[in-house]
Amino acid sequence: MGRLKVTQTRGKVGTLQQHRDTLRTLGLKRINDVVVKEDRPEIRGMVRAVAHLVTVEEVD
């Protein structure tokens, strides 16, 4: 399976608590933080929930 590079591009201030929790679960703490995660359905679902706060790239 591939990997996803997830970068937080917008701040979490003023967002829903659920979105803040999702960012924390992904391992993102501040703007410009980057994490690399396995490309799994659970991760894709979390990224989709906070798509307005992050950018995603596929990494080999």
UniProtKB/TrEMBL annotation:
Domain Large ribosomal subunit protein uL30-like ferredoxin-like fold: 4-54
Keyword annotations of the record: Ribonucleoprotein, Ribosomal protein
Pfam families given in the database record: Ribosomal_L30
Keyword Ribonucleoprotein: yes
GO BP annotations, alphabetical order: translation
Keyword Ribosomal protein in annotation: yes
Domain of life of the organism encoding this protein: Bacteria
Assembly and binders: Part of the 50S ribosomal subunit.
Sequence similarity: Belongs to the universal ribosomal protein uL30 family.
NCBIfam families: rpmD_bact
Protein name: Large ribosomal subunit protein uL30
